[in-house]
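User: quick one, sequence for these tokens?
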């Protein structure tokens, strides 16, 4: 590290393979003092990719919601939970943050109008715009991979159904046509499939359908309560929450085989979200009697509690690789 004339720091590094005696390259980052942490994360990303072949996620961000006393806050933090900054604070609930592709915007649901309404929030400027304030409830937004639209749960028809909503507003397009509760829609990484939760079979289960709607196929068959689907970026896995003997636990399914593995032995897991390289999952849970954000590897062997978050912590969402 060296100080530049304009007050910034020039951070340089090289990576050397000691066994092979091989230079694996190096980079230089001229950054301001407040971006030194980001420079360290970028170095970690470079090292991780050179060693594993997978892109590192150290310089990505997470979003989550906290409640302290009677105040709700939407936070954006580094992937390790540090450097958290409040994007929004309100005396009314904030739920369901969802990152737009590229990481510049967050959609979320606010109750400040005394009903659930969906907004899009520009992370850099703090400006926001209204996305969905239709009759009834507007909830559970999730962006399409191309960023042109979102899917959301609207109750325009009287019961909760899944609709597509343009990123710039406009008339919503209904995608499910049932008398049941259909909710928690999320796109697959290729944008061709929507996973969602429905009680059309008598209990909450996860289904999938084409991105334009139409007939749906049931995905989960183990247990009578499966919610919060989150597909992996490579399309191989589906993370979700299953109720097992009264305990809500994080599970992962291999979509090609249908094999399901429990990743935790805790009892209050919620809101799983894959890292953009597909190697880890972030989720909320209770750890040693306290609300916590945790990450786990896909085999469940390595778990890490994230730093920084205080209060009642909910609904983490791992952001995409920054463009």
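Assistant:
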């Amino acid at each position: 590290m060296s100080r530049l004339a304009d007050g910034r720091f020039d951070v340089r590094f090289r990576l050397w393979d000691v066994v092979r005696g091989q230079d694996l390259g190096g980079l230089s980052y001229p950054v301001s003092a407040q971006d030194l942490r980001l420079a360290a994360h970028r170095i970690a990303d470079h090292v991780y990719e050179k060693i594993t072949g997978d892109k590192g996620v150290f310089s990505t961000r997470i979003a989550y919601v906290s409640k302290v006393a009677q105040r709700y806050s939407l936070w954006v933090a580094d992937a390790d939970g540090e450097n958290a900054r409040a994007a929004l604070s309100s005396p009314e609930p904030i739920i369901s943050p969802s990152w737009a592709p590229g990481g510049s915007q967050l959609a979320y649901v606010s109750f400040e109008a005394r009903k659930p309404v969906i907004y899009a929030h520009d992370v850099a400027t703090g400006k926001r715009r209204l996305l969905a304030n239709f009759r009834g409830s507007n909830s559970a937004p999730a962006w399409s991979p191309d960023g042109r639209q979102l899917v959301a749960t609207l109750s325009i028809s009287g019961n909760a159904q899944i609709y597509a909503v343009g990123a710039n507003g406009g008339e919503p397009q209904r995608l499910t046509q049932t008398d049941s509760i259909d909710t928690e829609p999320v796109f697959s990484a290729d944008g061709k499939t929507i996973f969602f939760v429905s009680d059309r079979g008598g209990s909450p289960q996860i289904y999938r359908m084409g991105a334009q709607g139409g007939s749906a196929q049931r995905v989960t068959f183990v247990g009578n309560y499966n919610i919060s689907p989150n597909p992996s970026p490579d399309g191989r896995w589906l993370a979700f929450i299953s109720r097992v003997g009264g305990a809500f636990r994080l599970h992962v399914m291999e979509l090609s085989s249908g094999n399901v593995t429990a990743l935790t032995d805790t009892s209050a897991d919620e809101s799983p979200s894959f890292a953009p390289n597909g190697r880890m999952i972030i989720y909320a849970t209770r750890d040693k009697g306290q609300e916590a954000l945790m990450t786990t590897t896909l085999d469940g062997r390595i778990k890490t509690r994230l730093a920084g978050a205080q209060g009642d912590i909910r609904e983490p969402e791992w952001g995409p690789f920054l463009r």
